[in-house]
Specification:
This protein has 292 residues and is of the alpha+beta class. It folds into three domains: 61 residues, no CATH class; 108 residues, Tetrahydropterin Synthase, Chain A, CATH 3.30.479.30; 76 residues, no CATH class. It has seven helices and nine strands; from the N terminus they run αββββββββααααβαα. Strands 6, 7, 8 and 9 form a four-stranded antiparallel sheet that branches. Strands 3-2-5 form a three-stranded antiparallel sheet, with no helix packed on it. Strands 1-4 form a two-stranded antiparallel sheet. Strand 2 and strand 3 form a beta hairpin.
Length: 292
């Protein structure tokens, strides 16, 4: 009975020891076996692995491609037009031993802080190099610049055991103060263009209005000329008809003219005329009916 009492704790200790000496390496991870902080072995193949309980510990790192968003930075291209650039990088832990030696217990967080500094430095250096203008950064040529940033960041990141897979410029904007100035300049340019268009429109309107006024004057003058010609021709025709009528029967023509004169002079309700009784105007109202 006493022997069984001693064997049970021993068995438990053995089982716990065996379980604590076994660990699993996932296919998405790499593992380091550390003994008193020193690297004893590297486990990169997925499956079961062993360590010495209580003496050794296991530290695992992600073996997948990771993303790092860098904070926006301000760069000054060769044309002195400042830009705010927002970039991100994709990287992976290529050498887990070198990575552990470079960052220590800080792990991925410490590595990303240092990689962000590398990215910021290389981005400023490439985008601020000679021959790189703001138009280059904003055009399709930015792909070449991203490759240059990646290659230079990769050269420095190797000391951390990292492999920089890709670098992308997410956004490229003007600084806030430059943005306001640019908007003001664009607004002024649009207002100037609008004023030019209005001025050209006014000038065209003046030309059209002047042409219309001239056309009106010409048409009115032509109409008046035609009307005067027509009136003159009508008067001439009338005079010709009167002359022919007078020549055909002078007495009748004189009688017709007298009747017309009576009609025109005696119009109205209060018409009054003061004339001598022996005036020739009343010859046709006298008994003879023939001018004396």
């Amino acid at each position: 009975m006493k022997k069984a009492t001693y064997l049970l704790p021993v068995a438990v200790i053995i089982v716990v020891g065996l379980l604590s000496s076994v660990f699993i390496v996932d296919e998405r991870e790499k593992a380091l076996v550390l003994q008193f902080g020193q690297i004893k072995s590297v486990k990169e193949e997925p499956g079961l692995a062993f360590k010495i309980p209580l003496i050794q510990e296991v530290v695992k790192y992600d073996d997948r491609i990771l993303s790092l968003d860098t904070p926006p930075i301000e760069v000054t291209p060769s044309d002195d037009r400042r830009l705010v650039v927002d970039a991100f990088a994709r990287y992976r832990i290529a050498d887990v031993v070198q990575f552990r030696q470079a960052v220590g217990v800080g792990g991925v967080r410490a590595a990303e802080d240092r990689l962000a500094d590398i990215m910021t430095t290389q981005t400023r250096q490439v985008l601020g190099s000679e021959g790189v203008t703001s138009n280059t950064i904003l055009s399709s040529d930015r792909a070449t610049l991203m490759v240059r940033i990646r290659d230079q960041a990769q050269a420095r990141a190797q000391a951390l055991g990292l492999d920089v897979v890709d670098v992308r410029l997410v956004q490229t904007n003007l600084p806030e103060q430059n943005l306001d100035a640019t908007f003001a300049r664009m607004r002024a340019e649009r207002e100037r263009e609008a004023a030019d268009e209005v001025a050209r429109g006014d000038e065209a309107a003046q030309r059209v209005r002047a042409q219309a006024d001239r056309t009106v004057v010409e048409l009115v003058s032509a109409a008046r000329r035609e009307s005067e010609i027509t009136r003159g021709e009508a008067d001439a025709e009338r005079n010709r008809v009167f002359a022919e009528a007078y020549g055909s029967d002078a007495d009748f023509f004189a009688f017709y003219r007298s009747l017309t004169a009576y009609e025109r002079s005696l119009k109205g309700k209060n018409s009054a005329m003061v004339m001598s009784p022996d005036s020739e105007f009343f010859n046709y109202l006298k008994g003879s009916g023939v001018a004396q």
